[in-house]
Design the sequence.
């Protein structure tokens, strides 16, 4: 099975900051990667698919990059509503998929 | 607007079978483009894919759960279902159903299932 490892597991930042979350796959997955945002008590929300394509309605301050084994999610100017937990997910072996363990983004 | 809604018991006894149903509205579960999946999240922990099903009945399961999981589909009711047998406290989680086209783009709100006697 393809393992997905996110780093850091948690980070603290302030409104207006630029933050980057990393996701590494245990084998090459081309660009078959998605990112989700999850807020407490809510279902995850799809932000990005195909490593860098923004889902409809997602603000442009979110961006994704990478291919192969290394990927990043960047939030260019943090807003208060962005404090949440973020997950990556590979779908190279679709429909068999795996999630990263999550990165909790907290207010500094 | 597509909507998914999980339903089923919120409390299951150890060693019994957990059964949940996901009802899809605002779209057809028989669409050839999508799989339909189950994902769970233990309290305070991350997301775990359980398995997915195509409208034809083809299924794919997480190897770690495969021996205990059955996912089925009822196209006449626009529903798909999850059965997880021989549950233990470790199966306590919020269970989500979702539409899958590579990524999961539509999710149900989730339902908490607690395993306890």
Sequence:
């Amino acid at each position: 099975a393809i393992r997905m490892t996110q780093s850091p597991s948690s980070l603290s930042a302030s409104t207006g900051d630029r933050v980057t979350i990393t996701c590494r796959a245990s084998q090459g997955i081309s660009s078959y990667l998605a990112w989700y945002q999850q807020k407490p008590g809510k279902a995850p929300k799809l932000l990005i698919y195909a490593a860098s394509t923004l889902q409809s309605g997602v603000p442009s301050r979110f961006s994704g990059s990478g291919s192969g084994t290394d990927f990043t999610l960047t939030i260019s100017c943090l807003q208060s509503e962005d404090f949440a937990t973020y997950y990556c997910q590979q779908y190279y072996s679709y429909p068999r998929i795996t999630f990263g363990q999550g990165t909790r983004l907290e207010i500094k | 607007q597509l909507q998914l809604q999980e339903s089923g018991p919120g409390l299951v006894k150890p060693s019994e079978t957990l059964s949940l149903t996901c009802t899809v509205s605002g779209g057809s579960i028989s669409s050839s483009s999508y799989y339909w999946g189950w994902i769970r999240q233990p309290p305070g922990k991350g997301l775990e894919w359980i398995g997915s099903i195509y409208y034809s009945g083809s299924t794919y399961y997480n190897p770690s759960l495969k021996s205990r999981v059955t996912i089925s589909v009822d196209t006449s009711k626009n529903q798909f279902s999850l059965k997880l047998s021989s549950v233990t406290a470790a199966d306590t989680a919020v269970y989500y159903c979702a539409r899958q086209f590579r990524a999961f783009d539509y999710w149900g709100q989730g339902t908490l299932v607690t395993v306890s006697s």
Summary: The two ends of chain A are 36 Å apart (CA to CA). The CA atoms of residues 47 and 91 of chain A lie 15 Å apart.
